């Protein structure tokens, strides 16, 4: 029976399996995060941005005092960025938040219902992703990610060595098949369907992402707000009725060997290696023709109001 394995003791997991009712597809609900859970089940990261972004990550007390994180009156969790302060390009980066789950998780079914994600705005690099304790050996799974004006989600896997996936039936487009370090920093990439992220995602009322993780494959589905399967809304998800996934990562690579227990992370950074690197070719304002990164930093520093829509609003995450 497929069940998500939290990195707890075997006894704790066995007890939870005994008391939780089994879903029709064989999955059991292990954990739910909503509202205040994102303030207690996640830790706030305050170090330097590992992707070299123009960002300052706030600690929890500061983020709460400045309204960068809050639980809305309807119970959703809000996580945004500073969108009122003009900055110096030579000073600290724009204030934002990065949170990571304080437990690690492995194979199972993971469902996230988002009311809103950061919009398609020049200079931004939002992501919902996961990573193992030993990167890249334990793997990284980029579930929702995009930069600048992107409106199609990119699902990416990173790991060590060589790890090849092959073409499978999916609605997305496989653009890179090497997940391991042999691809450099690219990873194996599936380009999602248009409207699966950013501004059009928000204009359509958000939606649900689901990830099924087994020893053999990782599958990802995106369901717009009006097309969420009834089994998900009823809390009894049936993956056999989900239809064709947006991404199906499988091939000669051993998923079990290359992807170990993961910490789940939300963040919104600015510029950095990816967003800054492609900024000048993304239809964004260019102030320095000699440097895409400098143009990105200048835009982020001087245009705070542009980032009013750069926030996550999460209805829930459920782990089965």
What would you say this structure looks like, in words?
This protein is 16% helix and 30% strand. Strands 1, 4, 5, 8, 14, 15, 16 and 18 form an eight-stranded antiparallel sheet that branches. An eight-stranded antiparallel sheet has the order 2-7-17-9-10-11-13-12. It is an alpha+beta fold and 320 residues long. The protein has helices at 10-19, 37-40, 60-65, 198-203, 230-233, 255-258, 272-278, 292-302; strands at 31-33, 42-44, 55-57, 69-71, 77-79, 94-96, 98-101, 108-116, 124-131, 140-145, 152-158, 173-176, 188-194, 207-213, 218-224, 247-249, 263-270, 312-319. It starts with 9 loop residues before the first helix and ends with a strand. The chain has eight helices and 18 strands. Belongs to the glycosyl hydrolase 16 family. GO terms for molecular function: endo-1,3(4)-beta-glucanase activity. It is a lipid-anchor; GPI-anchor. Its EC number is 3.2.1.6.
Mean pLDDT: 94
N- to C-terminal distance: 11 Å
Question: Would you tell me which CATH topology applies?
Answer: Jelly Rolls
**Based on the structure given, which CATH architecture is correct?**
Sandwich
| CATH class division | Mainly Beta
Portion of residues in helices? 10-25%
Residue runs with pLDDT of under 50 for 5 or more positions: 1-22
Q: Give the overall silhouette.
A: globular
Task: Give the beta-strand count.
Answer: 18
Subcellular location: Cell membrane
Protein name: endo-1,3(4)-beta-glucanase
GO molecular function: endo-1,3(4)-beta-glucanase activity
Organism: Aspergillus vadensis (strain CBS 113365 / IMI 142717 / IBT 24658)
């Amino acid at each position: 029976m497929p069940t998500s394995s939290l990195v707890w003791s075997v006894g704790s997991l066995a007890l939870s399996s005994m008391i939780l009712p089994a879903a029709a597809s064989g999955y059991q609900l292990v954990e739910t995060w909503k509202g205040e859970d994102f303030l207690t089940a996640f830790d706030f990261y305050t170090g330097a941005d590992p992707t070299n972004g123009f960002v300052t990550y706030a600690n929890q007390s500061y983020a709460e005092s400045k309204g960068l994180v809050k639980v809305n009156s309807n119970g959703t969790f809000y996580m945004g960025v500073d969108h009122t302060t003009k900055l110096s390009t030579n000073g600290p980066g724009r204030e934002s938040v990065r949170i990571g789950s304080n437990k690690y998780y492995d194979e199972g079914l993971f469902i996230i219902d988002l009311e809103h994600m950061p919009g398609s705005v020049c200079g931004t690099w939002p992501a919902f992703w996961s990573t193992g304790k030993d990167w890249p050996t334990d793997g990284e799974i980029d579930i929702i990610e995009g930069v600048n004006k992107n409106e199609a989600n990119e699902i990416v896997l990173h790991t060590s060595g060589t790890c090849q996936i092959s073409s499978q039936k999916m609605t997305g487009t496989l653009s890179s098949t090497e997940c391991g370090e042999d691809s450099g920093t690219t990873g194996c990439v599936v380009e999602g369907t248009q409207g699966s992220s950013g501004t059009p995602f928000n204009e359509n009322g958000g939606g649900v992402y689901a990830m099924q993780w087994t020893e053999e494959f990782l599958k990802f589905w995106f369901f717009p707000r009006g097309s969420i399967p009834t089994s998900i809304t009823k809390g009894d998800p049936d993956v056999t009725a989900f239809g064709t996934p947006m991404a199906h990562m499988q091939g000669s690579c051993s998923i079990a060997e290359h992807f170990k227990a993961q910490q789940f992370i939300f963040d919104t950074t600015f510029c950095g290696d990816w967003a800054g690197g492609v900024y000048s070719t993304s239809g964004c304002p260019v102030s320095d023709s000699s440097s895409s990164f400098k143009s990105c930093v200048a835009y982020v520093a001087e245009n705070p109001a542009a980032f009013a829509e750069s926030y996550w609003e999460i209805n829930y995450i459920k782990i089965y």
